[in-house]
Amino acid sequence: NPKFLLFVDDIKVDGDTAHPNLSIDADKKRFTHKSHAQKTTQTEKSFDSAVCVLGSEGFSSGKHYWEVDVEKSNDWDLGVAGKSAQRKGPISLSPKDQFWVLGLSSKNYWVRNEPLTRLAVQKNPRKVGVYLDCEEKSVTFFNVTDMSVMFTFKDCAFSEELYPFFKISQKESTIRISSIEEE
Questions:
Q1: pLDDT tens digits, residue range 22-67?
Q2: What is the pLDDT of residue 149?
C-alpha cells in the first residue's frame, strides 16, 4: 500500500464557495454541474464565473491525500488553491495566481501552468489522487487506475493556506470525492 495513504484526509466541499450552478449532495462529496442556478445566495467566498468549489478545510502544514472519481465528467480540473486565489470573474488557473491544477479538456490532459503543458497519459484515470506536501512544497497527481504519477508541481510558492480545488466545466456531469477504505 503506498505510503501516502497514511495521510488520507476526509475531504468535503464548502457549499459557500460553490458556483451557483453546482448541485452538492448531502454528503458534501458529490457535486453536479447543472445548467441553471441551484442556489440564490452568493457570498464573497463563492466562485461566480468558473464552476468551481473548494474543500471545507485548508492546509498549511503536513501531508494530505485525497482521491477524486472523475469517470462521469469529460471536462474538469483538480488540485489546490490558495486561500486568497481569485474567485470572482474569469480566473486564470496557474501557479502565479495560487492555483496548482491539472485537468482534462477536449480529450487531453493538461497541467495548468504557463505555458499550458499537455500530458501524455497511458491509461485514462477513472480516479485521480492528489497528494499535497506542505513542507516539501509540492503537489503530486496520481492516476489511481495504474498508480502512476501524472505530474508533480515542485518548489511551489505556497504562501498561505491551501484548499482542495475542484472545477467541473461539463454540464450535467458529476465529480465525486472518494472515500478511501482502509486496507
A1: 999 999 999 999 999 987 778 889 999 999 999 999 999 999 999 9
A2: 95
Looking up cell 489546490 gives 80
Give the separation between CA 173 and CA 74, rounded to whole angstroms: 8
Average pLDDT of the residues in 80-108: 95
Give the CA dihedral 45, 90, 22, 34, nearest 10 degrees: 160
Buried b (16+ CB within 10 A) or exposed e, 153-178: beebebeebbbbbbbbbbeebbbbbb
Model's pTM, two decimal places? 0.94
d(CA 156, CA 17): 24
For residue 141, what are the β-bridge partners? 130, 151
Q: Is the pLDDT of residue 1 over 60?
A: no
| E strand residue ranges, the chain | 22-24, 30-33, 52-54, 63-69, 76-82, 99-105, 108-111, 117-119, 127-133, 138-143, 148-153, 162-168, 174-177
Q: Report whether the peptide linkage leading into residue 90 is cis, meaning its omega lies within 30 degrees of zero.
A: no
Quick one: CA dihedral 89, 90, 93, 97, positive or negative? negative
